[in-house]
């Protein structure tokens, strides 16, 4: 059986290039023709896939919020099914979010800059998905660090997301350590934030 990843569909190619261009030049700084040229089709040809730029932006921001939630639920369920300790499940959640933070930096920029351009229904959906993702983390964090009150745990989760999502501001990719080293550093920083809030009194069994 082949282990090669499936080639991206034309729709996925369009979304990837749209994300890159929107992040680099802003939503209003990019035309449909430019997105089409980036994937080798005419601007009007894009309308066979999307009704316009607004639909692309909505699919990008709703899509990544949905994928983060789905991935987080999968990691939590797999950890529970395998009998992992809560600290190991938290490690897995952190790893998943780091993958997003390192591999989808244009989407972080888009969320920060362009979320308010979405229609109310799409923006509310993004916020709903994000709240569910936060609460998934809060539940795991409180299992690992039981002294944290719910409000404190939620504040910590938001703070750690802010830390991990800072990757677009860490400098040019070539100026950073390698991907593995950057991921390991972010992981240590995230765990340090949680343990620091808890008090780091040594009563938690954590994965090294």
Describe this structure in words.
68% of the residues lie in helices and 0% in strands. With 208 residues, the chain is an all-alpha fold. The relative contact order is 0.11. Residues 200-208 have low confidence and may be disordered. Pfam families: TetR_C_24, TetR_N. Residues 31-50 bind DNA.
Quick tags:
elongated, 208 residues
Helices, strands, pairings?
Elements: H1 10-25, H2 32-39, H3 53-81, H4 86-103, H5 105-114, H6 120-144, H7 150-164, H8 179-198
DNA-binding region: 31-50
Domain HTH tetR-type: 8-68
Organism: Streptomyces mordarskii
For the terminal residues, how far apart are their CA atoms? Answer: 35 Å
Low-confidence stretches: 200-208
Calculate Rg over CA atoms: 19 Å
- Following the backbone from N to C, one meets helices and strands in this order, namely HHHHHHHH
> Major β-sheet, in short?
none
The backbone outline, from C-alpha atoms, is elongated
Task: Please report which band the strand proportion falls in: under 5%, 5-15%, 15-25%, 25-35%, 35-45% or over 45%.
Answer: under 5%
Helix content: 55-70%
Computed structural class? mainly alpha
Count every helix, treating DSSP H or I runs of 4 or more residues as helices: 8
In round numbers, the mean pLDDT is 90
- Tell me the number of strands: 0
Keywords: DNA-binding
Protein name: TetR/AcrR family transcriptional regulator
Pfam families: TetR_C_24 (PF17932), TetR_N (PF00440)
Organism: Streptomyces mordarskii
